[in-house]
């Protein structure tokens, strides 16, 4: 208990040491070589890049170091300060985040130095790689004990590979240490305060930073808010119902366009087409573009595809489902986007990203170790969440993780300022999370985008009202007097 208390206080104490030891940042061009597309894009945008050494273990500030990779695009106008960006994940790189969402970043970048930062273990920041043969988490538990046992074996294998290939790093990869890293960046930049824009997991990282380092932020935007009370290995556990609702909404949209997609003329008929695919994969895998899609993968394909209520994403999802239905009758060659998605999921391409994501989640909160806990949860919710419970409630590698979290989860309870941006029907982070975070950060405000079924709003959804309100806050520093809606 004393050790945990000491570590909890470390967030506030380590930065004092960092101020005294701060060294100038050695900015340089971003491209590492002729094949570095990300670095070239940053260079073309006028960015500079740098590396910053930080402690691997903040209980040993003079011990082994790791390297953080960061970028900066200087403000082009009357400078307010530095805006640190995080694209979420967890495990998502953010070195080139300033190049994303150009419609809003062009305006914001006039007033801020835009700071991209790959979090520890991610991208160029001393990355870990568990050498995973495919993106095996999350993976659905299926309909039978046999299919669930296969999912359990996949998760155990992920944990085993991470133990073998990154074991010495795992105990130091968590959100609290990433927040401490952010404060080291603040110090290195010479800023008394930083501003912050975080999406999805980045909202949780921002909340943890506010808790560990009160008074060190200026303007904070948390978009797609995560529930700080539940973030961890079971972060998707409560998402089944909203995704079932999201699926029905997409099915209604698709039914209205039956002449184009021929998946059914009513919502019920479109859902019946999907159910037909689900029944088929219980016994026979689909063959699509040289890949096989079974019970473990099918819910994930729907989860990542039917998650955005704009016209183009909904149309893309309808074409994807068309390919799934056609594959019932034999092998099919998919449209390029589905083929590329399967190529990415079923190859080592995402190994580094999934490795970092898993390590962060497992490092923040302990998971139940008994596989039967997850099987019972799936069974309890299967009738109400038939398409998604086997995915959102299934087991993760954290059930087999070789190390336990080194600190207790961060309790968010402070009076800092933040603007929380939330979609009413967000399929990834529940809308109720906004109220929870609003209560935890007492001087925050919530900006709700009504009727939106999209995860990530500012600069992504195309809602002019929301983009203007967030931009206005970042430029003026004035939070709304009360919660607002668009």
TrEMBL record:
The keyword Lyase does not apply. Residues 396-486 form the Peptidase S33 tripeptidyl aminopeptidase-like C-terminal domain. One of its GO terms (molecular function) is hydrolase activity. Belongs to the peptidase S33 family. Keywords: Hydrolase, Signal. The keyword Signal applies. This is Alpha/beta hydrolase. Residues 1-20 form the signal peptide. InterPro entries: AB_hydrolase_fold, Pept_S33_TAP-like_C, Serine_prot/Carboxylest_S33. Transmembrane segments: none annotated.
